DNA sequence: CTGAAAGCGCTTACAG
DNA sequence: CTGAAAGCGCTTACAG
């Protein structure tokens, strides 16, 4: 697998490597004669030349590589975000490196180091709990970074997010108006700001009502088991109940519980879930869900990062998108 | 974002860059004195040195990068394969570049070019229809490649696959013995060898029985619509019927049809699907499915590729794994 | 219109 | 025990 280099082209076309480089990069500015130009192009084609991006990167001090660190790539939300980011990155000439840290700060740190060694021009990250140290190091090095989905409480990095609190309030409002005896919020026991926002929005609306509300908060591991156990303990079918699952993982676990216990939706219990996932569509009832504008978020994140790369600034702006409540038939 | 280089270390520690390089790469062979060694390491740490892999790659003529081209990353099968490959690649010191060509040969070709320019040491690919040209070019350049899941009819590339024909025959045998009036095979109208194998295995077993069989073959786009339409036309609930969905996408579309039409499984119709996906678990009946040994396949593919990289050979061996039929309650 | 030369950050065979 | 130097494949300011 010996690859042709511009040196080879230069030798065969009997010109200098400089000239080859100019022609190949279309930087001649009409300086090079048509004859040499076509000769060079022909030779390049005939020996199957492909540029060595590594060499170019070294010289140019930029790789046109972007690193993406998601919290969990097996989550449909993140895999869809990744696809959209890849498309957008490509449009701006970047190649995307994808890493999943699986909510593990050690793995998060390792990925930042890996990407850094790989000389990525910047990173799009979804911070996980305890990833602050690794992130601060990047900030200190003035590494271009942009957050997505999640954000940091104490640091103002540029990033994209949704109106978590607001949309939760809307959902809750919708449920409150339907006159349920009880509304159950299913969320995570976590410090992640965007998730606390979802909880806050819900709480605020509940506070203004006189409806009884319960909170089921679970750890980030063993989601299925914990959701099942807590639903067992908290779901009282003698009451007219609505459940709000604040993530797709929680939603899937909850739907699974309802299937296993033959609880029919929305006859016996109503529900709303966060995010969209293919799995919702195999549930016997159409699931009402919160849809995030993935494409717009992906596009904006790449744009923000590109800006950071071209002109580094410390006070990044955070862009908030509006999630959309898609009403289906799972709420009665 | 000015990064420290070994030159900086050399200057501060007052040694040559050669010495720094030896120490950093632990290639001293006890040649360097402990004093200089620790001095260099201390300086490296204090100025936050991270090696520039780009420079190293250029010099060493290898990047420790592997490219993975899957047919469709939004398919759970491929995203799980990708995760497993990433883990295995990491173990051997490789970083994984992931690309999804979405069954599009143009995109496939573009990804091979992108990866090639990025100087990946090798590629793991799932060939799509009409990708032969791009693949032949790689072969001609003696680029280390390994196929996964799918394989090529006319070229013997090293690769991993499952016993498609055999497992289909087993499934069919299982259904034949249950004495259905009719068995429907749902597959793709395609030339992809591994899918034709699935069909062949089914056909062979049917031929030895006297059960009526139907084939529903659909195009690779608009899966949901086509499956719905053809099931509408072909499903006769007055007969005792079993359906065999030969991919997870087909399975999901089919399950969706059954949900939409309130057809109960296995009471009114029995079914088996290929591959595992989270969505199956939200279906009211536990779905019997074919499980592929993803981890083993991923590991073997990386191993085969690593072998190719270290010692290129043209006659690659193909490794076949055994898929497993997981019987649940969707067949009566 | 074209080329010689420096340099990006590394590694390593060679010399001392 | 340590260093000078060449070279990986490019780009580009400069000279002619």
Automatic annotation (TrEMBL), chains A, B:
Q: Does the keyword DNA-binding apply?
A: yes
Q: Domain of life here?
A: Bacteria
Gene3D superfamilies attached here? 3.40.50.2300, lambda repressor-like DNA-binding domains
Enumerate the spans annotated as HTH lacI-type domain: 4-60
Task: Please provide the record's keywords in A-Z order.
Answer: DNA-binding, Transcription, Transcription regulation
Q: Which CDD domains match?
A: HTH_LacI
Q: Which GO terms describe its molecular function?
A: DNA-binding transcription factor activity; transcription cis-regulatory region binding
Q: Is NAD included in the keywords of this UniProt record?
A: no
A Pfam family per the record: Peripla_BP_3
The name under which this protein is listed is LacI family transcriptional regulator
User: What is the scientific name of the source organism?
Assistant: Candidatus Chryseobacterium massiliense
């Amino acid at each position: 697998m010996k690859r042709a280099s511009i040196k080879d082209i230069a030798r065969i076309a009997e010109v200098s490597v400089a000239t080859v480089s100019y022609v190949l990069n279309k930087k001649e500015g009409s300086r090079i004669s048509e004859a040499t130009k076509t000769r060079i192009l022909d030779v390049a084609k005939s020996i199957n030349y492909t540029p060595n991006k590594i060499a170019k990167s070294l010289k140019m001090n930029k790789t046109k590589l972007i690193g993406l660190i998601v919290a969990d790539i097996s989550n449909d939300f993140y895999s869809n975000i990744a696809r959209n980011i890849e498309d957008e990155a490509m449009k701006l000439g970047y190649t995307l490196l994808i890493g999943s840290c699986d909510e593990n700060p050690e793995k998060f740190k390792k990925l930042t180091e890996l990407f850094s060694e790989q000389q990525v021009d910047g990173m799009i990250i979804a911070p996980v709990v305890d990833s602050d140290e690794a992130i601060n190091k990047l900030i200190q090095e003035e590494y271009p970074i942009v957050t997505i989905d999640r954000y940091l409480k104490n640091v103002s990095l540029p990033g994209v997010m949704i109106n978590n609190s607001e949309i939760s309030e809307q959902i809750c409002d919708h449920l409150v108006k339907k006159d349920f005896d009880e509304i159950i919020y299913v969320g995570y026991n976590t410090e992640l700001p965007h998730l606390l926002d979802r909880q806050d929005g819900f709480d605020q609306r509940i506070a203004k009502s006189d409806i009884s509300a319960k909170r089921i908060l679970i750890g980030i591991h063993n989601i299925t088991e914990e959701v099942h156990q807590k639903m067992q303990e908290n779901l009282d079918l003698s009451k007219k109940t609505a459940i709000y699952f604040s993530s797709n993982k929680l939603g899937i676990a909850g739907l699974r519980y309802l299937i296993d216990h033959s609880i029919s939706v929305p006859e016996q219990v109503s529900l709303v879930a966060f995010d969209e996932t293919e799995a919702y569509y195999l549930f016997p009832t159409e699931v009402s869900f919160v849809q995030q504008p993935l494409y717009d978020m992906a596009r904006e994140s790449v744009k923000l990062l590109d800006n950071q790369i071209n002109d580094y600034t410390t006070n990044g702006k955070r862009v908030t998108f509006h999630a959309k409540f898609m009403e289906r038939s799972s709420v009665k």
